[in-house]
Amino acid sequence: MSVTLAALLAVALAAGALAVQQSRAVGERNVTIALQRDRAEARQLAATADALRVAEPVTAMLLSVAAWRLASAGEAGTSLTDPLALAAVTEARASLTGSLAQRETASFHDPATDVRTFRALSRDGRTLVSASDGEARIWDVRTGRRASGFTGIGDDLTGIALSPSGRRLAVVSRTKLTIWDVAKGRPTGATLTVPEGGDGGWSQPFFGQAEDLVLVRLGEGLTVWNSETGGEAFPFSAGMDFDTSPDGRGLVTAGLDGNVTAWTLKDRGKVRLDHCESCALRAAYSPDNRTVAVRNGALVRLRDASTGADLQRSFTGADTQRAFDEGDADTLRFSPDGRFLASVTGKSIRIWRVEDGALLLTHAIDAFSPVAAFDPDGRTLRYLSEGSVTTLDIAAVTMPVVLKDAETHRAALSPDGRLLASKGERTSEVRLWDVRRRKPVATLDVGLEDLGGYFEMAFSGDGGRLAVISGTGNGVAIWDTRTFRRIAAVEASTQGYVSAVAMSPDGAVVACYVAPSDTSGGKKGEIHAWDVPSGRHRWSRKQVYPEGLRFTPDGRALAIVGDEQRLLDAETGKPFGPSYGSPTVGVSVTGLAFSEDGSRFVISDEVERLSIWETGSRRPVGGIIRGGSDIAAPLLAYSPRGDVIASRTDARSVALWDVATGRRLGAPIAVGAGEPKSLAFTADGSRLVTVDSEGALTEHPVDTEVVVTAVCERAGRTLTRQEWETYLKDIPYRNVCPD
């Protein structure tokens, strides 16, 4: 009996253990299935978010957060060597980062769907008037709420126009033009009989920049009418473009005869501003009435409105002749303060700074006959296309946060992003800044003899020392950034000028390249290395001009950027190991940055490619990353976490790249109104610090949780349950942006 009971007990225990094991296996399988589902949903959400950037910017931001939450939920317990897990995490992170880089912050869609709906955007971009079925509806596009409205405007509308202040609405109903008081919702009493449409279509109303002047166009005819006085209407030729001055005294027309003419309305006096036959002609008055911006084919110039004189101000990158030839002509518009000028086509929006003609922004759009407006807040531009108004954040270029009294013609950030060294164009002083406090900590007089000559500087890896070119031209001075004292000065025995300088991570060695003053006969320059602070000369080596020099993080080797592309022994200067470089023979390397542990490095080349290499074997890792920079002064940084690379992409932006996949993380990031001068990750890799030529010092979130917080703040809310049900109906609701 006891034997039987023991056997039964053993069987029961075995069965129980099997049941537990099977239950655990089922549980693990369910977890795995849930993770796979979430990752698949995360990839779909990331793609959806990217597709909604323009149509639904806020929803796109929140969906990118949801995608990251889903993709990263099982990241801690799962190896990202799994291709599907890696793809989900990378795509979700790219979408999340893109939510900070996107300029679109809001989009308002007119609920009216009637094809006979007419719309007008106010000059400040804050109000949209939508008119159809005898009713005018007034919308505040900032809140998406209806502000007011009125009826009685007629059912047979042929056009509407909103005055610059948004207080008056011009309504054309076949042959009658009526002015309505928007606030009161009733006609002002001013009316004008306009020509009846024929082959040229119906008369269309417009406002320029004058509150009282209504411009009515029919075919090539243009009538200027003062709606306040109800006085005589003056006929002109509409041509390609027209505008009225803010004070109501002037009119500018861009005629089909190739003449751009400024008219004095009181006496019909005229001044020819420009002439170009078969050119794209556009014109716009400045807010102070004194200047007219003129598009003349491929050029945009400023003209004196009273004399026609060329104000010698050209705008870079203004060539849109090709777009005009394709039927996509631009319009010009000044910002309310006159500091900026925008050119808008159905394909792009460009913004220039009027003071110097610098192109600050080129933003791609896909719109039909867009109408753009600067918001008076100085940080926002909106454009109306068909039934939607899209809001763009342009503060990075119009209102950059710059260091006070900073001169950053030359600038270098310490490798940990803690310190900034900056120098003006015509000074021998280098100023040190505390990046986090945004305050200067010292001014170093480096004693340059040639203030306008070539200048270079570099921090040691720990930021404790700074090497700068000394006044002799072929030497280097080293400064202690803690005591603000010069601790060493070294000089090469050969004559020439220093064109590249590097310091070892601990600041104990400085190396530089001295280019020859006389390059006849194929003379080469030399790389020199010295001990610091003793100044003992270690070695020198003949070398063709390199793009730069970089020490490995352990300080044992010096990397040559460009030409030979070898590692040199820091003790002897002798090359060792195989070479590295661009994947294509004959293509020069332009930049190089090491990972923090020195196991890898990234290089950029002159055909806009990045590639990652193993330091020990000098073998490339992964594929070629396309989309680097062809700019002569590339900037590269490798995150201390080893997962992200930052690079300069164009004249005013940088990009983040995922090391594991080579994928760009979101759109390029705007750094300010100036040219990027230096970039560095913070010591913990959570942020990227950039500085531009105009003193804009900015910290950009990189750590995903920091990015999530920033995106949620930008969106201003979380996903609603209804939105969740629309995009994630098979997954239980989660609050992706908790308070």
UniProtKB/TrEMBL annotation:
Residues annotated as signal peptide: 1-19
InterPro entries: Quino_amine_DH_bsu, Quinoprotein_ADH-like_sf, WD40/YVTN_repeat-like_dom_sf, WD40_rpt
SMART domains (alphabetical): WD40
Pfam families xrefs: WD40
Keywords of the record: Signal
The protein's name in its UniProt record: WD40 repeat domain-containing protein
Protein species of origin: Streptosporangium carneum
